[in-house]
Amino acid sequence: MSDGIRRLAAVIMLVAGAALLWLAGQHSHDAEAARNDLDSTVANAREHASSSDPRLKTTYSFERGGWVYVHLEGDPATIGFQHGYMLAKEIEDAFPAVQAGMVRSTQRDWAFFRQVAREMLWPKIDPEYQQELQGIVEGLNARTGSQLDVYDIVALNSFEEVPDYYVPWLNKKEKLVGAPNLKSPGNCSAFVATGSWTKDHQIVIAHNNWTSYLNGERWRIIFDIQPAHGYRILMDGFPGVIASDDDFGINSDGLMVTETTITQFEGWDPNGKPEFFRARKALQYAGSIDDYTRIMLDGNNGGYANDWLLGDRKTGEIAQLELGLKAYKLWRTKDGVFAGSNWARDPKVLKEDTPQFDPNNLETSPNARRVRWEQLLNENKGRIDVSLAQQMLADHVDSFEKKTGANERTLCGHVDTAARGVSLWDWGAFYPGGAVQGKAADSAMAKDMELVARLGHPCGEDFLAKPFLAAHPEFAWQEPYLRDLKAGPWTQFHSGEMPVPAK
Ligand SMILES: [Zn+2]
User: Fold this and answer.
1) Scanning 134, 380, 397, 407, which has its CA 20 to 30 A from the CA of 297?
2) Ion ligand 1 — residues with CB under 5 Å?
């Protein structure tokens, strides 16, 4: 008897046993409780049967500081299976929250996103990542019996590019009357510094992720990926998504990578390759700034257009890749600093890819944070290290009003406190979004495959969902999904670390 048949037989026997229990107990139980017992027995049997799957031999996970650390190892299908299995609970929690946001903002149903995934995105993904995505579906199904298929998972992976880049492009092309006001997001504050700017002349890289709290409180995975091909990866990420997507990661050949999005970016190439796939491929296969740039440019679809901040610890060089669709620009230096807070600066990118963006309006969140980065980085030239970077990510100075207090213009963003909202990104008054977590590393840490990360606002303040929803009933639609976003401690992680056994 094969292992598979033996496991199936075990499941059937357990189910039959549970059914007998149900029959015996139906006079004393009410029918619903018995059905729940049966469901839970089937689920336990399924989980027990699949936990001996040989594909799970090399994977493990643990929680620390509010983060879920997961080690994935093997060929693409195995890495995917481990991802789906180990993060099944997190994927099943995140999927409906992301889905609700995508459907609501675009006024398109889920069938639309599945069709986009199947017809436009899937055919352009390299086979290796198709296998990984299919593996996620199989692992998820093995663990929970989930009915999500590969097009659901591809649509989930595209949540930063299809709703806010493809759909507005499509609405314009189709001249859709009454189309929703969709705008590319303004995600994140970040910098990368090197040479005389840092305390010991090594690279320092830091990033906080700006997003809705709804998505942000679920952006709590530390992926330690040991792929059969390419470089080893340590990155933060989102359940079910193959790229870091916010993005922060290092690889074993010395690349250090982060980004901030380009505000008011417009454009899409339906023949291009999905951004989430290019970003993951670049982190896995780029051993230099040139490699990284080449992979991101190959099939650029304009989705999730970012200013990439890169470092190569082997050479001490850093770079900024401003990746528009019609234009792009690469700056690089071995002695300098590049900061990002959702603004483009190359004249050609500004003109061709962000025609609406005004770089001179210092009142807006991207420009106010640009001014604050310039102040902070200049004041600290020659002293920047990881601990200072952590403080910078938590900064609450509003450079426009020249006062301290968290709002939509501070590096650590708290847009839920701001009556102005951020109209550039279509975030209305008191929008529940802002800086949801932070990460930092330097060259020495990158060499050891280490990073530090803090869940929640990098300043340590908590966001509480219940009082927020009571005060802002206009966000009642988020009630089923929105939870507290509580700050954890700054926590160190490194590749290959094992969970500390319970005492
Ligand atoms: Zn803060």
Assistant:
1) 134
2) 406, 412, 457, 459
